[in-house]
Amino acid sequence: MQHGPVVRRRKLGAELRALRTSAGITSGEAARLVGWHQSKVSRIETGTSGTKPADVRLLLDAYGVHDPQLRELLLVLARSDGDGGRHHWWHAYRGVLPPTYRDFISLESQASAMRTLETTVVPGLLQTPEYARAVTRAAVDGLPEERLDTLVEVRLARQDVLRAEPPLRLSAVLDEAVLRREVGGPGVMDRQLRRLVEAARLPHVRLQVLPFAAGAHIGVTGPFVIFSFSSTSDLDVVVLDHLTSSLHLERKEDLEAYTEAFNALLNHALSPEDSLDFIAATAAGA
């Protein structure tokens, strides 16, 4: 397991190496084409050093890669604070958001699909403003009101990915505890559950509830997120959140293990239709 930036460098390097090989170009030839020393190309491809978006553009041009989606995704992977890359909306909050959170948002903004298991709280992309405020206040003790406002603002801005064209495809498995845990009081929770019902009716959102009656399941080890990208499955990544950091898993065997785990959870969970009824009944106090 590695922290996000390390995984991003390794993924970027592996993809650039594959593109170079597909173009029939040696690392030495690539270096000559862009005016570098061969060792720089090697360091980028092995992920031992970071690279700027401008350098990635040079390599992609040299390899004849013109797919706009693939180019944009690789440029996002190359971005790091202060590197002069394309600024995204979350850069305005860099003084407030920790690097791991900014890294998560950048992946979320570029992903085509997101699969997530939530065991304690409603997924951030589906939270109401009131619920988001209550969760953030509970997670960060003694947070000044101004900073709390900013973090809630960021949480809501992230939800634009569900309104984009095309929108992010979201598949979420919610443990029943997510629906039962009263966050922010009865009124806040009632409105949040009704928001889930609305979201579940969107064609690109799939919610399934894992009821207590399902017993022990593979998800008891904790929540996780799997990001998938339309350009290449080689850039898919699993994100595990911890109290003070996030860990990213990108090895093929890790991705396969978490994909199998998520599919197993889908089989144990209620169907999307029954889940919608379950959420609605919970909101009604049934």
TrEMBL record:
InterPro entries in the cross-refs: Cro/C1-type_HTH, DUF5753, Lambda_DNA-bd_dom_sf
SMART domains in the record: HTH_XRE
Cross-referenced SUPFAM superfamilies: lambda repressor-like DNA-binding domains
Domain of life: Bacteria
Segments forming domain HTH cro/C1-type: 16-70
Parts forming coiled coils: none
Signal sequence residues: none
One Pfam family from the record: HTH_31
Protein name, UniProt field: Helix-turn-helix domain-containing protein
Source organism of the structure: Streptomyces viridiviolaceus
Lineage: Bacteria, Bacillati, Actinomycetota, Actinomycetes, Kitasatosporales
